[in-house]
Amino acid sequence: MATNDRHTHQVQVHTMQQPRYDQHGGNKSSSLFTQQGGPSTSKVLAVMALLPIGGILLGLAGITLVGSMIGLAIATPVFIIFSPIIVPAVLTIGLAVAGFLTSGTFGLTGLSSLSFLMNSVRQATGSVPEQIDYAKMKLQDMVEYTGQKTKEVGQTIQEKAHEIGPEGQVHGGAGAGTKEGRGART
Predict the structure, then answer these.
(1) Using CA atoms, how far apart are residues 107 and 99, in angstroms rounded to an integer?
(2) What ranges make up the beta strands (E) of 40-183?
(3) How far apart are CA 45 and CA 53, in angstroms?
(4) Of 33, 62, 104, 107, whose CB has the highest number of CB atoms within 10 Å?
(5) Residue 61 has pLDDT above 90, yes or no
(6) What is the distance between the alpha carbons of residues 20 and 14, in angstroms, rounded to a whole number?
(7) Which helix (H) or strand (E) segment is 162 a member of?
(8) How far is CA 10 from the centre of its chain?
(9) Nearest to residue 18, comparing CAs of 7, 29, 10, 26?
(10) Residue 161: CA atoms inside 13 Å, Cβ hemisphere, count?
C-alpha cells in the first residue's frame, strides 16, 4: 500500500499538463488551488494571517456601531433642547466653510485657466515678450495720440474763449455787435 501512494505522488509531481479549462472557459490554474489539487503554501499562510485580522476588524466595526448608537441615544435630547442655538451655529459655520472652499476653488480655477491661456499663447506664437513689447509700443502710440488730441482740443477751447472775451461777447467777425453774452444786459 505504501508503494501505491508513493507511485501516485510521483505521477502528480512529475506530470506536465497543459492548464486545464473548466466548462465556462476559466483557467483552473489561476484559482485557489494549484494544478496538483491543493492550495499553495503562500495562499494558506495568507488565509491564516488574514482570517484573524478580518475577525478583529469586524468586531471593532460592531463595537463602533453600538457605541455610536448609544451616543446618539444620549445626545438626542441635548440636541433637541439646544437646537435653537446649535442649528443656526452649524448653518453659519457650514456656510462659511463652504464659502471659503468655493472661493479657493474659484481662485485655483482662475489661476489654472490663466496658466493654460498663457501656455497656449506661448505655444501658438513662440514668444510672449515680443508681443508684450509690441503691445507696449502700441499703447505708447495711443497715449501720444490721445495727448496730442487733448492738447489740440484745449487750444481750440482757448481760442474760442479769447474770441468770446471776458464779458461773453464775440470780438470781431460779422456778428460782433449782435450777440449778447452772459454778462451783457439790455
Answers:
(1) 12
(2) none
(3) 13
(4) 33
(5) yes
(6) 16
(7) helix 128-164
(8) 64
(9) 29
(10) 7
User: Which three-class secondary structure state does DSSP give residue 58?
Assistant: helix
Question: Are the C-beta atoms of residues 169 and 179 closer than 8 Å to each other?
Answer: yes
- How far apart CA 33 and CA 42 sit, in angstroms, is 11
Q: What percent of the chain has pLDDT over 90?
A: 18
- C-alpha radius of gyration, the chain, whole number: 46
Which residues face 33 on adjacent strands? 39
CB 170 within 8 A of CB 179: yes
Residue 60, CA atoms < 13 Å, CB-side half-sphere: 6
Cα dist. 150→28, 138, 140, 157, 167 in Å?
Answer: 91, 18, 15, 11, 26
Prediction pTM value: 0.30
Give the span between the Cα atoms of 140 and 134, in whole angstroms.
10
As beta bridge partners, residue 68 has none
**Per 3-state DSSP, what percentage of the chain is helix, strand, and coil (rounded to 5)?**
75, 0, 25
How do residues 139-180 score in pLDDT, each as one tens digit?
A: 899 989 888 988 888 888 888 887 776 666 655 555 444 444
Cα of first residue to Cα of last residue in the chain, in angstroms, is 150
Task: Tally DSSP H helices, then E strands, for the chain.
Answer: 4, 0
Closest alpha carbon to 36 in 12, 19, 18, 17: 12
